[in-house]
Amino acid sequence: MSTRLVLGCGSFGHALIEELRQTPGDLHVVSGDEGRVDSLRGENVPAELGAYDDPAVVEEVKAEDLPTVASVVVAGDDPDRNLAAIEVAREHYPDVPVVSYVGRDGTDAQREALEAAADRLVDPADIVPQRILQAAGRGGLRLRQLHRIVRELDGPLAVVMHDNPDPDAIASACALVQIAENAGGEAEPCYYGEISHQENLALVNLMEYDLTNLQAGDDLSRFAGFALVDHSRPGVNDQLPPDTPVDIVVDHHPPREPIEARFVDLRSDIGATSTLLTDYLRRLDVEPTTPVATGLLFGIRIDTKDFRREVSVDDYEAASYLLPYADTATLERVESPSVSVDTLETVGRAIRNREVHGEVLTSCVGRLHSRDALAQSADRLLDLREVTTTLVYGFKDGTIYMSARTRGTDLDVGETLREAFAQIGEAGGHADMAGAQLPLGLLGTVEEDADEDLSSVIADVVTDRFFETLRSRPNWDLVDIYGGGGEELPVGADEE
């Protein structure tokens, strides 16, 4: 059985290896990318960690593993290193054919040198026409439009996430920034609010994302354009002025109103905005950086609840593509962060203050330190026996915040919250996971520092509108909402 030695494993090398694995023969890869080597070994591809253009490394591989090979493929991304690797291959395997990839952004002189040294040269210029033909449909036209918009801007593009962004929004913004920079433009990933959820903080810190935290009222004149990711309207779930002209919108949530922007990509049939950005990277042949790939993979997993909620074939394909580029070891650390005392206290208040009516649980946690603790409380309370829907809410900085969850029902909580609260605030989300926020001013003259009185008034407003909407939902049988039909059990007894 013949063996093919692959020196270097950049974007071209990784794609090539996937093809070579489908043909007869053995493979052996040399790469200096530790993550890529680990990934290949996990796929049962023999891989060696080391500089692929280092004569000593290739000599050691030859002596220990590969005294004879049928062909050598040089597949790194650096043209100069590829040329050096060809020379190393010629020295150790003088009678073996050598195929080389030009590398990324190779000059004419580098191409000529590589063509003279290798038996066959693979030039991206030969591949591009095929890729254009493959992408000549609507998707290809849209991406060319995206590139054109970015290049035409006379200054930086603000890539704005929704307020208090989650991993899907964070990763999508960082990916769009990489795409913009690859097109020769400038871009900044921006957000309003805070990143307080422990997993989100861990992602930002461990991946060292350089994010811009905007404040309400900031001068935005330094930005030449605006892009919205994971939401679709300025001033709705972000603090941009509502009349901000938007250039780009990329989102997977269904819009409530027509969206105005120069480039709009809304696909509610997929599980995460990160999937859309991954598709862009693949179509544009932009290899994601490790932080971007890691974030996108995490974003897909979070928004699809590890591929158990609203998942599509595109989500699976995107995750499969991202995996070789992602730092899975760091991702494990992101998924197991420490929990803050404030979060634990909020979850505790949610448990203590819960009210169960039928299969619906509501809980007012009062004053909030962190909005993200609401979502964690709603998730945690959904584990209670015989509870299928949760709504947890509290107040902070003049705003009432809500987080809702449901499982195993025909109820669409995203649509329910929109119907209940969109006319007096902001609301939306998925069928099984949603949120809303209302200005405290709608409650009139209640003093915000009177926590107990305020909580009572908020509870009346929120639960009345929520249950009234629930009762009007089709195919939703709510038993004894106000009659105490649902029995409240001790906390220790109703956990599965």
UniProtKB/TrEMBL annotation:
Start and end residues of each DHHA1 domain? 360-447
Q: Which residues form the RCK N-terminal domain?
A: 5-107
SUPFAM superfamilies xrefs: DHH phosphoesterases, NAD(P)-binding Rossmann-fold domains
Q: Which InterPro entries match?
A: DDH_dom, DHH_sf, DHHA1_dom, NAD(P)-bd_dom_sf, Oligoribo/pAp-PDE_c-di-AMP_PDE, RCK_N
- Tell me where on the tree of life, at the top rank, the source sits: Archaea
Membrane-spanning segments: none
Q: Which Pfam families match?
A: DHH, DHHA1, TrkA_N
**Record-annotated DDH domain positions:** 158-300
Q: What is this protein called?
A: DHH family phosphoesterase
Q: Which organism is it from?
A: Halomarina rubra
